[in-house]
Design the sequence.
């Protein structure tokens, strides 16, 4: 997925992704997490204030993480995965009220390479539109298991799984997606390192966290860092929007 956390766009199919029998997943908008409608922003300026307040920074991942330039995204930009499996920036789609990303990193140490992270929060106009983003996200990993992020950065061998509320241990979000693969950037040294990405939906809000690298870190280490940041942002969504099960 894009390091900025988005997966939707004109190149993606509009078909909902089905889940195994008896399991709810992306494409099923049955509400499990409800928000207070009076607290959901309706203008782009107020929506941007909300997503800024929720988006994780360096202190959300653990000790030693710092800001990575550029630290904050352009809120008018929307990464889109093309038919050639290359990410590009396009203008914000009409169904999105606001989106925001912060970039962090854990500097390399003597024995371990640099870890890069990005956290994104997006507020859609409706729950159905947020759910459509989740469905397209799951589908895109199947369409493009190998993706070009930037000129020298690639992710490969992607595998994704979606879990609706109440399945596979998901008891905190309407939908949960996990994607894993390998990340390669010559600037970080030779050879690929682990890549993990997680996106969840709570009503009209989607939260995404990606963790890339570094050499010497086990995949489980990155998943722990990722889960910490996602849980912190879920807590903020509950506080800001009065979300409840």
Sequence:
């Amino acid at each position: 997925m894009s390091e900025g956390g988005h997966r939707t766009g004109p190149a993606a199919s509009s078909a909902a992704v089905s889940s195994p029998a008896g399991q709810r997943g992306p494409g099923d908008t049955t509400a499990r997490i409800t928000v207070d409608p009076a607290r959901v922003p309706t203008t782009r300026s107020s929506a941007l204030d909300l997503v800024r307040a929720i988006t994780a920074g360096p202190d959300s991942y653990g000790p030693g993480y710092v800001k990575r330039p550029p630290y904050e995204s352009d809120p008018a930009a929307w990464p889109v995965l093309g038919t050639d499996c290359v990410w590009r920036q396009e203008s914000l789609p009409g169904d999105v009220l606001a989106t925001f990303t912060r970039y962090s990193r854990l500097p390399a140490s003597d024995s371990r390479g640099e870890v890069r992270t990005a956290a994104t929060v997006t507020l859609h106009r409706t729950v159905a539109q947020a759910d459509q983003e989740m469905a397209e996200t799951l589908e895109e990993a199947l369409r493009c298991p190998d993706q070009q992020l930037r000129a020298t950065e690639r992710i490969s061998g992607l595998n994704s799984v979606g879990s609706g509320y109440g399945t596979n241990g998901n008891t905190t979000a309407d939908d949960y997606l996990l994607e894993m693969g390998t990340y390669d950037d010559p600037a970080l040294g030779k050879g690929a390192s682990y890549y993990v990405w997680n996106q969840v939906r709570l009503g009209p809000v989607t939260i995404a966290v990606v963790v890339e690298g570094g050499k010497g870190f086990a995949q489980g280490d990155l998943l722990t860092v990722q889960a910490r940041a996602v849980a912190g942002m879920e807590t903020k969504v509950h506080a800001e929007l009065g979300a409840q099960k």
